Amino acid sequence: MTTHPFTRRTFLKSSLLLTGGLLLPNVLPAKAKKLTYKIAVVDLMILKRQKLGALQLTKDIGADGVEVDMGGLGQRETFDSQLANPEIRQQFLDKAKELNLQICSLAMTGFYAQSFATRPTYQRMVQDCIDTMKAMNVKVAFLPLGTQGDLVKNPELRPAIVERLKVVGKMAQKAGVVIGIETALDAKGEVELLREIGSKHVQIYFNFSNPLKAGRDLNQELKTLGSKRICQIHCTDDDGVWLQNNTRLDMNRVKQTLAEMGWEGWLVIERSRDANDPRNVKKNFGANTAYLKSIFQAS
To answer: Around Cβ 269, how many Cβ atoms within 10 Å?
Structure first.
């Protein structure tokens, strides 16, 4: 029987192969990226629409930031916005800095009841919001298509809405911001809508209550949209009970879904108020904020 002597050259070659294998990147386990979630409230829903006191109340509630509304719309040519005044804008910025809060987004909630598809001065309205965003260093704006822009009940409005959102996308791209829309469509329909619009600067501002009310699978809707199509999330359901008591919303599973998607960002509390005490702002929003932090900011 022939034997092969274990020479010094053989030993060095074997050692190099072993060491090289251990150093290969795909051999070492990848360290998972820690995702960051921040919790905000809506100034309109804490009954402080465009009021400086919204910031102190946000701090008292325990949230990390606030979504500030652009003001009423009605039949005006643009929003009734106090933030158009540079001095008032600066007061908001100074107060937010003092309290270590962030203004996570601006909201064009006037379009909940007004028609984005037909209002003749929509470009001025959106531009006023974008100008305010730039002045306040806010990167996301919320644009609900609302009842008059419901693409399920009024599909004939789709061409006009798509055409207008293409214009909005170009305006947002020029400013380096994102406009987050809320629609009545399911996630698959929203994916198609975004493809028609064709701008990365128009995304979905996802609202948990929409799929829940329609009986759709919330987690599957999130996965269908994917992380790159969702700019922010209204992380609540209809009023009735606090989030922690909501049996149709499994927040731990939602967190797992978002983690699997690799999505991180602002979770904004809009509703989920106790039906027996709906105007107790600190109690309702404080409870929901504490609950979301216990889920999404646990170490």
So the answer is: 25
Q: Is 3 helix (H, G, I), strand (E, B) or coil?
A: coil
State pTM to two decimals. 0.89
DSSP one-letter string for 184-203: SS-HHHHHHHHHHHT-TTEE
User: Please, what is the Cα angle at 164 between 160 and 170, to 5 degrees?
Assistant: 155
Pick out the chain residues at pLDDT < 70.
Answer: 1-32, 299
Percent composition of the chain: helix, strand, coil (DSSP 3-state, to 5): 45, 15, 40
38 φ, ψ (degrees, to nearest 5): -120, 150
User: What does the DSSP assignment read for 56-119?
Assistant: HHHHHHT-SEEEEE----TTSSS---GGGSHHHHHHHHHHHHHTT-EEEEEE-GGGGTS-TTT-
Query: What pLDDT is attached to residue 30?
Result: 53
Place of tokens 């072993």: 18
Q: Is residue 103 within 8 Å of 96, Cβ to Cβ?
A: yes
Q: Using an 8 Å Cβ cutoff, are 75 and 85 in contact?
A: no
What are the backbone angles phi and psi of residue 2, rounded to the nearest 5°? -90, 135
Tokens matching residue 139? 């990167």
